[in-house]
Predict the structure of Ribosomal RNA large subunit methyltransferase F.
Amino acid sequence: MKKPAPATPTEKEQLHPRNPHRAPYDFPQLSQASPALKAFVQPNKFGNLSIDFADPAAVKALNRALLKQFYGIEHWDIPRGYLCPPIPGRADYVHYLADLLADSNGGQLPRGEDITVLDVGVGANCIYPIIGRREYGWHFVGSDVDGVAVRAAQQIEASNPSLAGAIEARLQPSRTRIFDGLIQAGEVFDLTMCNPPFHASAAEAAAGSQRKVAGLGTGPARGRGPRPTLNFGGQHNELWCEGGEAGFMRRMVQESGRRPTSAYWYTSLVSKKETLPGVYRALQTAGATDVRTIEMAQGQKKSRLVAWTFLKPQQQAAWRKARWSPAGA
């Protein structure tokens, strides 16, 4: 008789120590919190309760349950076909950003709504602001080039009292700009964050998604038709852009360099290791005073976030005193 595979706990143990998703999913408990999930839960090939991660409806139901149980979100929905991201990995980014702030503040983690974060590409799912608000009380501005995504994020904020006044979703009017035309005069952010489009074309995005679906399937889709190409969904601007990840990062660095005092830390996820040398060269050219790379992992997936600042030591000290004082932390 085949023993249950221990892969899931091992993979999740690689998550950040404060990440609440390090333990295996408790599907009976999640189904109790969100009964709609129960229809998708079944034993996988190892005999463990799971869902078919190649089924978009199952993934969406799991996200609803996780957001309700761990983050107090009663009402969450996204338009059909929009990105429905895996929450554990998204939470890791937020927790590592909190560590970055603490490391910049003598070990004390700045909390509360006075800490402002810009989420570039907030998406219809609004996941990063939900997690950051719940875990650290931060205030978020979320930008997106897609009007449907902006309205969906606004609806999530309006439908959940715990998010009231905590998230401002803004439309970025230019699909080729990141900070230009978005950050307002005199506006500053303690952090910016971004999960950029990885791919350079629709064909490349589709091929990547097909590989992911092939690796994620846990069983038949229970009569709901053929497996989809995009199990986590995703629109054009969420999955690919001209120049791919490398081109997007180059533009982000250039635009951040034109507004060196608009943020203490600019940050972005970088999925492809081969993108890093170009990012470092661009940051050197732009005049970054400190660049940090933080490795992250979940199972076989390796990623990292790159953080940079243009502030000189005296400017950093003034920022900390004005915004991260112990009384306001």
Summary: Residues 1-9, 199-214, 216-224, 234-240 have pLDDT under 50 and may be disordered. The two ends are 54 Å apart (CA to CA). Residues 87-103 form the longest helix (17 residues). DSSP finds eleven helices and nine strands in the chain.
